[in-house]
Structure formats: structure tokens, C-alpha cells
Amino acid sequence: MLLSLRGDNPIGDDLYLRAMYDTRVFQLLLQCRADVNSYTRNAPPLLHRVLELRRRIRIDHSNDNIIVRILLDAGADMDRLWIRCHSDGTPHRASLPLALAAAGVDLDLVTMLIEAGADVNGHEPMSRRSYTRPLIHLVENPNLSFGRQFQVICKLLELGADPNVRAIHYHGRRPALLDIVLMIGLLIDHGADLEQLDHHGRNFAQRHPPNGFLWGIDNVLEERRSPRILMKVALDRKLPGLLPVKYILPKTEAALHKLQTTPETRENKAAVTEAGKELKDCWGLCRSIYDTFTLDQLPVELRCFWGENHDHIERLLASLTD
Fold first, then answer.
1. Which of 239, 258, 273 is a domain's end point?
2. CATH number of the domain where residue 48 is located
3. What one-character-per-residue DSSP string does 222-287 give?
């Protein structure tokens, strides 16, 4: 009956899949006592399958929320870890319903699973030394508007999602700088430990920009944006430990050296101007640090550099505008 309503050829992939995705099919199977948590080595439980279909097959997903609700009401295990294995039985990939939903495009499904009691800290093993969690899937998802994404991330954190997760990557996404600042601030607000080391021996600042949030982005863009991300968070929240000193100090020293060693000739006018712009940009970052923190809060190398070069750099920059 359902196939006759849907179209002519039940073997055609699109029509067949649409028919099988009808909510009435699920209701009929459940009435006949279908086990919503059954699975095989190569076929996940129904809840996993429904959440995974959105990413793999282009069919009408308008029934997703209804079907997920039907499955949850029928006792689907929202915390079941399904592990897909290779032919020899070794694990290939693992998935949790909440993580699958977080990697999708409908955050209402994430909210539905959370409200139903899904574990916000469920682990999906990726290798012997690493794992992923729903929070990571949600932060990394490149298909969401930041406003809605931020709301659901807040909800996960409010419900106890651990903010001390492995480095989060954006996988080619080009988020606005202030979006990333807001994201880092949110993790800190919910207890991210700035000094805790991951299994690579990196603390929070070391595993986030430029090593984390801007992975895959053009190197020139990354070089300009990455330190400004941690700088913005450090300045806004008065956290000197997040200052990207190992970037700012060498960059400023190099810009100063470049300006000092570029001859001021007619032929070099453009080079001098460019060197001056680089130094002005770096010095602007240094000024903002000294305007925000007291000297005793700053690393020794920054204090020394400021004391030794402040007057000289100010004169150099002033001379460029004369």
C-alpha cells in the first residue's frame, strides 16, 4: 500500500527509500514487536541508522524528528555504542546516537536526545589513545549557523559536558574570529583547565589556535588570525596565561629588525612603508597587553622587551607618520 502511494517502481532507490522512511512503516514494525535495539556487525540499531542517513543518503528528512521520537518512546537505547567492525572482526568505527545527531544539520534532534537523558559525555573510541565526544562533534560541525550551534553547545555544557576535550578542529571551516573567541570563552566559563596537558603534552593555549581551531586554513590567514584569537580571550578575561607570547615577541623583534635594516632610499620607500606597517601591527598587540595587565602579571621576557625597546619603537613609528 505504501509503495503504491509513493510511485511506480519500488526497486528504484529514491522511491524505495522514501517509502521505507515513512513513519507508518516504523509504527507498523513496532506494533509487530520489532526490536528497536537489534543490530548486526554491519547494520547499526535503528536509532543510529536514522541519524546516520541524513549525512549519507539524500532523501526527505522531514520525518526525522517524528521517527526519532517514536524510537525513543519504544525504548531505543540512546547511549548504545555501536562499533562497526572490519571483516576480520577488528573495530573500524564507533558511533553514539547523540554524536551522530551533533554531526548532522538538525539541532532539534540533539536537543531531543539530551532531554531524553542521553549521556553528554559519551565516549566514541577512535584509537588506543584518543576518543571523541558529542561536544567535539558539535563544535566541529561545519554545516551549522553559529548562533544555533552556540545555543546547543551551551546546553551540553550546562548539563555537564566536559570542556577539557582534545584539540577541537574546524576542518576547513572559516569561522569569524569573534565566534571562536566566544567558543573558547564558553569552554573556560564551564571549567576548561588551562594548564591540563593532553596526551601530546600540550596545555589549553598550545592545543588551540594556531594548532586547533584554524586547522586547514590558509597559512597566511592563520598566521594573522591565530594569535589574535588567544589575545582577545586573554585580554577580555584578564588571563595572562593565554597570551601568545611565543608568537608576539619574536614577531615584534623581527619587525623591528626589518625596519631598522631597511635602507631609507627612494627605491626602498615601499619596503620601508611595509616594514613600518608590520611593526605598527605587532606593537599594537604589545600595547594592548601592557594596557590590560600589570607588569608583575607578565612574563619576564615581555617586561624586558618593553623596558628596553618602548621609547625607541615609539620614536620609530612616530617618524614614519611625519
1. 239
2. 1.25.40.20
3. HHHHHHHHHHHHHHHHT-GGG--HHHHHHHHHHHHHHHHHS---STTHHHHHHHHHHHHHHHHHHH
Same domain, 217 and 258: no
* 203 close to 197: Cβ distance less than 8 angstroms: yes
Residues 93, 178 share a domain? no
**Per-residue tens of pLDDT for the chain, all 322 residues:** 444 444 444 444 444 445 456 777 778 878 888 888 887 767 788 888 888 776 554 445 566 688 888 889 989 898 888 877 666 666 566 788 888 888 777 778 888 998 899 998 887 765 444 456 788 777 777 677 777 778 888 888 888 888 876 544 444 444 555 567 777 888 888 888 888 877 777 777 776 654 444 334 444 444 555 677 788 888 989 998 888 888 889 989 999 999 999 887 777 788 888 889 999 988 998 999 999 999 889 889 989 999 999 999 999 889 887 6
91 grid coordinates: 573495530
Is 91 within the bounds of a domain? yes
Q: How many domains does the chain have?
A: 3
| Residue 296 per-residue DSSP state | G
The DSSP secondary-structure symbol of 162 reads -
Q: Give a yes or no: residue 5 inside a domain.
A: no
CA–CA separation, 310 and 169 (whole Å): 37
Q: In whole angstroms, what is the distance from residue 40 CA to residue 82 CA?
A: 10
Please give the Cα distance from 165 to 18 (Å, whole number).
38
Same domain, 39 and 97: yes
Give the SS3 label for residue 257.
Answer: helix
Backbone angles phi, psi at 95, to 5 degrees: -150, 145
75 shares a domain with 118: yes
* Distance, CA of 302 to CA of 296 (rounded, Å): 11
Q: Which of 274, 245, 248, 237 is nearest to 259 (CA)?
A: 274
CA distance linking residue 41 with residue 33, whole number of Å:
22
Element (H, E) at 208: none
Domain extent at residue 249: 243-322
In angstroms, the CA 169 to CA 139 distance is 8
186 and 111 in a single domain? The answer is: no
